[in-house]
User: Fold these one by one.
Assistant:
Number 1:
Amino acid sequence: MNRVYNWQIGREMDYPYEGKYPDRQFAFVFNINRCIACQSCTMACKSTWTFSKGQEQMWWANVETKPYGGYPQHWDVKILELLERANPGGQTWAGGTSASPRAPYGRFDGKTIFEARGPVLSPDSSRVLGYLPTDQEWNSPNIYEDNPVGEKGVSGQLSKSGEQLPVHKTWFFYLARICNHCSYPACLAACPRKAIYKRPEDGIVLIDQEQCRGYRKCVEACPYKKTMYRGNTRVSEKCVACYPRVEGRDPESDGAPMETRCMAACIGQIRMQGLVKVGADGAWAEDRHHPLYYLVHVAKVALPLYPQLGTEPNGYYIPPRWVPRPYLRQMFGPGVDEAIERYSSPDRELLAVLQLFRKSNRIIYRYELKEGPKIFEGELRGRKVTLYNDTVIAYGRKDEELFRTTVEEPIHVREAKHANSI
Ligand code: SF4
Ligand code: SF4
């Protein structure tokens, strides 16, 4: 085993290969607070990549209702239970959050899936702790849709006193998921055929269909269960990050890098995808005005999904404000309280950057802020609030302006001659 540095857990960890890092890394931020579970993202992916025979149960992009839903069912509960069995009582974080980008969430003192493997829990040959879901677990991608946890944690027993922030007594939330194109992919680590590779130019993780022999070691190892086996071709498949679009080869894009289909289709405007600069040790290089760098490392409102698993996922989430904190801390690590606090009372820059979501399908490489006039002063949940109508400008790969937008959304008044017409 080699030792690699994982900044999300604030320490070195075991990994079967040496750390090799791309120049830029495919990454994304999803704002859970805005997702309405319309499944437009799910269907955009399905109709692009997985509409063929043998792919009926394959959903590279999915949206599940937490805490009961999951695709495949119970994927997160199962891997967390396996880790707990491997290291009883030891899966804990230490040190608290810090200003250092090398350990922003403190240090995870437990075992990752690369460190907890072993003959008791995994077959002898396994390089990664994991399990193979049953066919039944893959069968119902949207099981328990909209099912809330009731008052005092009892399902179906709804709170009758009404709900208020900071925490609701009856709650659920939507978790939109794709492959995280991890920096230390478990799928790649587990493949005995070396059929899985991470591209040096953008960190996208792909399965070479010619090399794969369908052993399903990747399906067993991926803790997020984002590689899937296709019975009629007898090889595994996974999210390809719409790489032709990211490369700028979509006919629509005129050579400019475009966001994936699931991002572009998002009705709730919860999604932003980009390519972040990576340093020599795999951590994100400072890029103060890249919107994803800002959300993850400066504002710290977006957090990785289950960072304790150890794959260094490149999917980040703005956590839902109304959900009990222990549940969220388990899912997103120790940065949850700070993230919710900042998102609930956004400063001037954060409010402007949040306007960048889904104004264009082009990948944003940089943003700039132009200050505007004060438009509101008041009080919200006991705090003084001042709003400014700032303009935020997005730039593309060649530093060309992609679009500009303001904090205050424009109001369009329909002309009288069009009243009551569609
Ligand atoms: S989410 Fe799973 S399939 Fe995707 S790169 Fe990570 S380990 Fe591999
Ligand atoms: S398209 Fe956007 S809002 Fe709709 S389910 Fe997907 S992530 Fe949520």
Number 2:
Amino acid sequence: MSHPDGMAAALVILASLGFLAYSLYRRYLPLAAARPYPVPGTLTDRFKSLFTFVFLQKRMFRDKYAAFYHILIFYGFVVFGLKSGCLLLEGFGIDLTIQHFGPYLLSKDIFIILVLAGIFLSIFRRVFFRPERLDNSADAYIILAFIGGLMITDGLTDGAVILLQNPAWAAWAPVSGAFATLMSPASAAGAYAVCWWIHLALLLGFMNYLPYSKHFHVYTSFFNIFFRPLDPPGRIQKLDLENLGEQSRIGISAGQDFNWKQVMDFYTCTECGRCRENCPTRLTQKPLSPMEYGLECRDYIYDGNSNLTRREADMAGREIKPLIGERVTEDTIWACTTCRYCEYACPLFISYVDKIVGMRQHLVLEQSSFPPEAQNAFRGMEVNGNPWNMPRDTRLDWCRDMNVPLASEHKAEYLFWVGCAGSYDDHGKKMARMTVDLLRKSGIDFAILGPEENCTGDSARRMGNEYLFQMLAQQNVEILNGHGVKKIITFCPHCLNTLSNEYGQFGGSYEVFHVAEILARQISFGRLNFKTDLNLELTYHDSCYLGRYNGILEAPRFILNHLPGVTLKEMKLSGERGMCCGAGGGRMWLEEKIGKRINHLRLEQALDTKAGGVALSCPFCYIMLENATKEKGSEAFKVYDVLELAHKAAFEG
Ligand code: SF4
Ligand code: SF4
């Protein structure tokens, strides 16, 4: 059937598409002015990721209710995309016959019902049991109204055609046929014209509204997921400090300092609130909530603050407005524990740690502005090779009586990377000694670096001191490579993450294991056995850098489940959803002056399980939770490293 008012429709469509092009151009300008983004990884990996996370919507299924209605609407978009394209062409008198193809019409008609059901479920949830993470914004209802209107007017338009012409394809369009029963033959022609125009207006209005709404992700999410970093999660990109080139400044302090993928992240946020739901800083009333941080940055960019590159702004004599201070406070930037809960939770792979560390890099390296407590840790790492700032020559004191072989004297299969906690912290030193006992008992050949070992620099990098991190990384890689090290064991998740995922940037490529992985393997081979019944009911706290960063969730639980007399009760936030202890991202060395203490909240979550104590696999987590039990008068609730439990079961009794 011909479309009504040919010339008028063509003009309306052209004008609307013109405005859409203008809106998209405005959004493009900050992307063009942003820094480059290296796109690593193969095309095959990218298409796999696209298929899994866009077409299968895998991450959405963490919330099955939302996944259900989102999938109905998403696939409705896919199916209606063709029909909408045909409608726009109809405006120019072009009638693509594909839109009358029976099976397509049938699927389109079925999706009218499915999409309307999805809209109903979405509204029902928002009105009657809205999750705490979700704001009840008008934007969501506007978009749902657009989509619902499109479905209904499509059915009415096709229904009117069925009534007027009884076309051959009518048998393939039962839903439109049902809409036809709402009209009389006399009113069908008028209804067709009215519905056709309303449908066109809704479609064009929807397309033009998206760039100004939180649903801009309809355009950008495909690209955001396609171009997502495929590196190990949370890896900080190496700054080329020798050759800053056009960057001219270090880190992020304005919109132009983000790379284009980071800007696209801001565009893509749907404000679903998943990232903030269990962000430890938000849960403890600190100024950082990841979603709000992202929206501040996005609005700053939308305000036109980053449409020009720094060079263009210099040439035009334009001042670039600062982002830090103006829109994002320093307290916000320093609050982050880099736990990556937000990044795990986001269905659209929007990252936060890279942006926050980028801002810290600017504060530390350009402004020398950082919490005063950080200075002692920086100085300790630089002068003594450890953030505790203990004398370098006492690094080996923990094992002087144990006859542990040095890598300089014994070429072993594994290097045991002791780490600064294992070398200087009292409890950490005990864990290092127990590691030696357990590795020996289970027949592992290992050596240590001893006085040659330095801090890995994890805290320095995450506190923004990239100069210091690179200095430490280069020294360590030189020493490790000098000894021909290939396999490393460590009990510190922060060391594990840095050695495994970041030293490759400096020529250090190693297979790195957490000691729990090695012990779990030896248990399964029957090379490590336990004899003492521990009679303990425990919960397990996942270190962010072990669990979420490196996917090591099972090995510590495997050990616990093999210890005689130990039963496990999981916390609500456990595994990949585990909540941070508050020490990551260099927060271990900073005071926590705002809001509730994160370690107190985590202890409360552990206490809620009614277990007798908490086991964990990280020296930082141990210090944080042990301190929390003392500060909250809960000393009866014991904190254990899995290592000490394994040691007790293997050696005592
Ligand atoms: S990394 Fe952790 S602390 Fe930082 S914003 Fe994300 S959830 Fe919050
Ligand atoms: S960043 Fe991701 S998880 Fe957070 S609100 Fe935006 S879309 Fe949702």
